[in-house]
Design a protein that fits this description.
heterotrimer; A alpha/beta (about 280); B alpha/beta (about 280); C mainly alpha (about 350); A: about 280 residues; Rossmann fold; 2 domains; about 45% helix; B: about 280 residues; alpha/beta; 6-stranded mixed β-sheet; 4-stranded antiparallel β-sheet; 12 strands; about 35% helix
């Protein structure tokens, strides 16, 4: 125990002095979000394609986080690659390590505890432990507020998240998705989480059977269709659900849905909680 | 003497027993071929002598093509009913057979832009000689078939007659190691040709016969057959009805019986072969 | 009067030089700026920065070698397929090899991706390449069986069977797409566009061994393939054991394409346009066409891969997109030129 603490202390000292000047490539939208939240964005020299909305294209894009390339990354001369556990391919990560790049895989998960763990890990790598404790306090505060505003189990509404894209079937968010985490955090239950994980195509009948009180879609979907009325007109099976009849269709910012649970996901959860339960 | 590949010792034993020049190039005995209860070739027997030019005639569906395909091995198991140079067709090794039996198709589906010279050289594929020698042989044969001036032309750009003569050069190249003991089968070689080209190709066939190559061909034109054949085989419903020299075979009676059509047969004023004319009025 | 006057043997010198230049160029070009002196030092194993020697020795040189082999394999297979089917529009995809390989890979990605969480070795040990190879071989076998009867193999039926089985594989692929999660979907999409990123030394050894085998075997059959262009009966009459030849060539092509698909995903158009380009230069004679196709295939893929590495650096475009972007217009132009001839 003592040894672990002393190691932690050493790494803290080390990180705050040396690591603050690291050049970092971030491979994961959630990771980039945390780096920005910690105020360490000056250290970023590149991000994956899903992170571009954080820097509006001002940083080099290293492509899809599943298809990272050795030379492309090395051309940015990074000291550190912070990546989610999906990042790859493995050969690239191995070669990067051989080339002297520190490859860090942050822990995964869609619980608030997982988010705080990620914040701590990234803070360690960027030498921002102080900012991390502030950030974690904020996360705790948000989580507490959400918990207080969560009604008793019996009064919880049923909410589903739908991914609606032109030309492909409506996909329903199951467990192990940020959308599911947001639904739970905002004090609702996700009827789809019982049967499916990740995103799966959903049939009209299955949607009706779930009888959601609230339907969530992404900002982009709603914007593309114009209004809730237009959305319900375009997807008549949604209009027949309790949520559709009560026009309880809300949109979520896409940034809070990509990757894993992030800080913006919490903000979105709180915003939606207020909308749904009318606090 | 024949050269045999080392892979076929048991065949080598068979082949050593014969002396090719004495055996008939083609001997067909009691050949029958049926498909789904339909008899396409019905108990046909005949033998060709070396250097003979034999033309198979008969109405559509008489079994001419089937007979040729049986001999060339495209259909059926001939067993011992077909012998080439004394040996049952089926026991000939592929490569050796190709040196003694060549087939000139009615038309070839070649659409790739080989030069005429390359097409002629393709005949040398199974020959046990060097590529250089094959080029020389192909060149000679192109001269013989009067297409040497077309050597560098793209094959698909040639006329029908030129294509046929290029292919003739190709099959001659294929038979060039047979010491003039080859059997050449032609399936309606003149069908796509104009008058002059038809006669040019058939004259070439006659020349080949004089060199000792045996020719068996299917023709549709009775008069061309009468002019160029040494021997006529008249087929009807899969049966060989008439077998003989043009003068004996191509009588009005025989032709009317086989084709079910009235004709008049005269003698050519200069060349003395029969001339067949329609007797029916339009 | 159309005279056939191809450049014949003389074309090999410039093509070889071009290939050499492209090969050298490809190892000096990349998103990481490396000076020529440093690059040479890294190649000679002399003292340079570790990341420079790593990029040279583990990325650029292996990729160059893999591109040469895979490009040559695809081009050779395409040439042989076109000869075998006597159809200038045939490519290895047409008898379903690529479709089958794609289906195999998709199966592996969709089925094993969830398991990979618990058994990470499953994907890294190459279930995708293995499934791709077996998918390709299985489809080839099926198509061949469908096209064969007691009289031999019908090329027309094989082509039709290939189209049908490709459609079936496409449908199955669609089904997998429908049920795959987002992650697998992206993986599948990336894989189907091809990538030379898997250039590890064992893969390179496999690719070159395959190329050598294919080249030696195809070269021996080059003249027979020429005869084959006359038609199957004609080839048979010329002493060729047609069935044996067909079976051998089809299996070799399936193996070649299956292996290249398994190593690099789907890379289109190389097998289709290179044989045409070769025929324009040296004519249809396979003794010349095969080696030239191998050179040109390697050249095309090498250039395409170099472009793919640089054009959106530090990210990378799938190489299949580049070959399709370059190949499709070329092919359309070719079709226009040959309208009525095919």
């Amino acid at each position: 125990m003592m040894r672990a603490i002393s190691l932690l202390l050493i790494s803290l000292v080390f990180s705050s002095t040396v690591l603050a000047n690291n050049k970092i490539v971030s491979a994961g939208a959630t990771i980039t979000e945390i780096i920005y939240a910690l105020g360490a964005q000056q250290q970023l020299v590149g991000t994956d394609v899903t992170s571009s909305k954080w820097h509006n294209g001002t940083l080099p894009d290293v492509g899809y986080h599943r298809a990272l390339t050795v030379e492309g990354l090395l051309s940015l001369t990074p000291d550190l690659l912070i990546a989610s556990k999906e990042a790859g391919p493995d050969t690239t990560l191995q070669l990067l390590q051989q080339a002297g790049v520190n490859v860090r895989i942050v822990s995964s998960g869609n619980r608030v505890a997982d988010l705080k763990q990620r914040i701590n890990e990234i803070a360690q790598q960027t030498g921002r432990m102080e900012q991390a404790s502030n950030l974690n306090d904020k996360v705790d505060a948000l989580a507490n507020q959400l918990q207080q505003q969560t009604p008793a189990k019996a009064q919880q509404q049923k909410a589903i998240f739908l991914l609606l894209r032109e030309g492909s079937p409506a996909s329903l968010a199951g467990k192990e998705t940020p959308a599911d985490a947001i639904i739970n955090l905002m004090g609702a239950t996700n009827p789809a989480a019982a049967t499916i994980s990740s995103y799966k195509p959903a049939s009209a009948e299955a949607l009706l059977a779930m009888a959601p009180d609230v339907i969530l879609v992404s900002h982009r979907t709603l914007k593309a269709l114009g209004s809730v009325e237009a959305l319900l007109a375009a997807h008549p099976m949604l209009a027949a659900t309790p949520a559709g009849q009560a026009r309880r269709v809300f949109s979520i910012a896409g940034t809070s849905l990509i990757g894993e649970l992030g800080i913006s996901s919490l903000h979105e959860a709180l915003r939606l909680n207020n909308r749904i339960y009318g606090n | 003497m024949l050269k045999l590949s080392a892979k076929t010792p048991h065949l080598a034993h068979h082949f050593n027993d014969i002396h090719i020049p004495q055996a008939a190039p083609l001997q067909v005995s009691h050949l029958t071929y049926q498909v789904q209860q339909q008899t396409l070739v019905d108990d046909i027997s005949f033998a060709l002598k070396r250097g003979e030019c034999c033309v198979v005639l008969g109405p559509n569906g008489a079994g001419k093509s089937s007979l040729l395909k049986l001999i060339s091995g495209e259909i059926g198991q001939a067993g011992h009913n077909i012998r080439l140079f004394g040996q049952p067709r089926d026991i000939w090794p592929d490569g050796l057979l190709a040196q003694h039996l060549a087939i000139l198709p009615q038309h070839s589906q070649l659409s790739f832009a080989f030069s005429a010279f390359e097409v002629a050289q393709l005949g040398g594929l199974s020959l046990p000689v060097s590529q250089h020698k094959i080029r020389r042989i192909a060149e000679q044969n192109m001269r013989a078939t009067d297409v040497l001036h077309l050597a560098q032309r793209a094959y698909p750009s040639l006329s029908g007659g030129e294509k046929q003569r290029v292919h003739l050069a190709r099959v001659l190249t294929q038979l060039s190691c047979a010491n003039n003991h080859g059997l050449l089968i032609l399936d309606e070689p003149t069908s796509a040709l104009d008058l002059a080209q038809q006669h040019k190709v058939l004259q070439l066939c006659r020349q080949l016969c004089q060199q000792g190559i045996t020719v068996l061909m299917v023709l549709h034109d009775l008069n061309l057959a009468a002019q160029y054949a040494d021997r006529i085989l008249l087929l009807k419903s899969g049966q060989l009805l008439v077998d003989g020299a043009p003068k004996q075979a191509l009588t009005a009676e025989n032709i009317e019986h086989v084709y079910q059509y009235p004709v008049k047969v005269m003698s050519h004023p200069e060349l003395e072969h029969p001339i067949i004319m329609s007797k029916s009025h339009h | 009067m159309l005279i056939v006057r191809y450049q014949t043997r003389h074309i090999f010198v410039p093509t070889g030089l071009l290939l050499l230049a492209a090969a050298i160029g490809s190892i000096f070009i990349g998103p990481l700026p490396i000076s020529i002196q440093q690059a040479i030092k890294a190649l000679l194993n002399q003292e340079v920065a570790p990341h420079v020697s790593l990029v040279m020795q583990q990325v650029r040189v292996p990729r160059m070698l893999l591109c040469l082999a895979i490009g040559a394999i695809l081009a050779l297979s395409g040439t042989v397929m076109q000869g075998l089917f006597r159809n200038p529009l045939a490519d290895p995809g047409i008898i379903g090899v690529s479709g089958g390989a794609a289906l195999g890979a998709a199966l592996a990605i969709v089925i094993f991706a969830p398991l990979a969480e618990f058994y990470p070795l499953l994907l890294t040990l190459g279930t995708v390449p293995v499934f791709a190879f077996f998918g390709g071989s299985l489809v080839t076998f099926l198509v061949y069986q469908l096209g064969s009867n007691q009289h031999g193999t019908s090329v027309a039926i094989m082509l039709l069977a290939g189209v049908a089985i490709s459609a079936l594989a496409g449908a199955a692929l669609g089904l997998l797409n429908y049920y795959a999660d987002e992650q697998a979907l992206r993986d599948l999409a990336l894989w189907s566009m091809g990538s030379m990123a898997g250039a590890t030394w064992p893969n390179i050894a496999l690719a070159w061994a395959t190329l050598t085998t294919l080249f030696v075997c195809f070269r021996q059959d080059a003249n027979k393939l020429n005869a084959f262009l006359l038609g199957e009966p004609e080839a048979r009459h010329m002493g060729i054991q047609v069935e044996v030849l067909k079976r051998r060539l089809i299996l070799l092509c399936a193996a070649g394409v299956g292996i290249s698909v398994s190593l690099c995903g789907m890379i289109g158009f190389v097998g289709l346009i290179i044989p045409h380009l070769g025929r324009m230069l040296v004519g249809p004679n396979h003794t010349l066409l095969l080696p030239l196709s191998a050179l040109l295939g390697g050249l095309l893929l090498l250039i395409a891969d170099t472009v793919s590495r640089v054009i959106v650096a530090p990210a990378e475009l799938p190489v299949g997109i580049i070959t399709a972007l370059a190949g499709a217009p070329f092919f359309i132009a070719l079709l226009f030129q040959q309208r009525g001839k095919i």
